[in-house]
Amino acid sequence: MGTRHVRRRVPRWSELRPLVRVEAPAWRAGARVGRAASIADLRLIARRRVPRAVFDYVDGAAESEVSLARARAAFGRVEFRPRVLRDVADPDLTTTLLGRPASMPVVLAPTGFTRMMHHDGEHAVAAAAAAAGVPYTLSTMGTVTPEELDGGDRWFQLYLWRDRGAAKDLVTRAKASGYRALMLTVDTPVSGARLRDVRNGLTIPPNLTLRTMAGIARHPRWWFNLLTTPPLRFASLSSTDGALADLVDRVFDPRATIADLEWLRDTWKGPLIVKGIQSAADAVRVVDAGADAVVVSNHGGRQLDRAPTPLEELPAVAAAVGGRAEVYVDGGVLTGADVAAAVGLGARACLVGRAYLYGLMAGGEAGVTRALDLLRADLRRTLALLGLRDPGQLGPDSVRLR
Description:
- This protein has a single domain (31-401), classed as Aldolase class I (TIM Barrel, Alpha-Beta Barrel).
- 43% of the residues lie in helices and 12% in strands.
- The protein is built from 17 helices and 14 strands.
- Strand 10, helix 14 and strand 11 (293-296) form a beta-alpha-beta unit.
- Helix 3 (39-49) packs antiparallel against helix 17 and helix 16 packs across helix 17 (354-386).
- The longest helix has 33 residues, at 354-386.
- Keywords: Flavoprotein, FMN, Oxidoreductase.
- This is Alpha-hydroxy-acid oxidizing enzyme.
- Residues 31-402 form the FMN hydroxy acid dehydrogenase domain.
């Protein structure tokens, strides 16, 4: 047809050399998680790195997991409204949380059984949070004691135990160890029905059954680390054996009332946060009782299935509380764009749990750092594309729910 073809030639090595890249071995944690382009990628890596029961403990929720699905669906309903021709060359992601600067509006949420995900557990998470300049919240159900962590902006999460004396002692220890804020979780009068854990036979510590023996063959490194490091336990509890739901029902107090929050307010003189708020009315009640901040949360869908979706409840809570307390939100936060959406709808910051636990399972401290880096980069990009220079400019004119 008369078409002329480009003449072929043999390439020179000087032309090929810039194209040749030698990647670090994938078995190195930093290299492994460094290839993750999203939290979803870290989740896939995590799924391959740990036994199924461990992954499901993080990934799952209560009953039919409707609440968890709705949380993610709510972020899918977010519509951003960008403004153009604005100078966004140098976005500033910093904010102030309870009077102290944070590098971005993110708090690492309290999570139980953290050393089950990776043998470095809370030490890895706290180190990554301190390096990133965001607060980390140690859980009552953590696998290290309050005294074992130091550095960074540390908050402590408390469940109200039946034994109030033991609870008060734990609060005193947290204060003496330098924890700046206390977070009371109020949505766990009894344990939720986490059916994945039931079906997987998750116990504390993990039992060596035929199923777990098979897991050793598939995940020898995880089991080696588990068996050659200090025994896995809830460090702040004296008795931890058995199924997780049984432990919660044995230790936590279903009779707790607003009077107990007032008692805690008298006991703890620092910033006090109440986590597990699912209505504007309850937000007002706890702020009236002395809370400095509230977390709009349904426990990541792990307690009452089909509970209110936090992101959808957030605007009403923020409006009801006004400027009397800071408002945070959690549940389904997996991207920096999710953080931007939540701040635009009234949150001071987001608590993230699964997002950093996927990183922890995928690669220890390097994985948590990667998760935080991904959230930061995504938030910076989202702000720039919205035509904004900092999170304080987010609001109803830039974010809405469809």
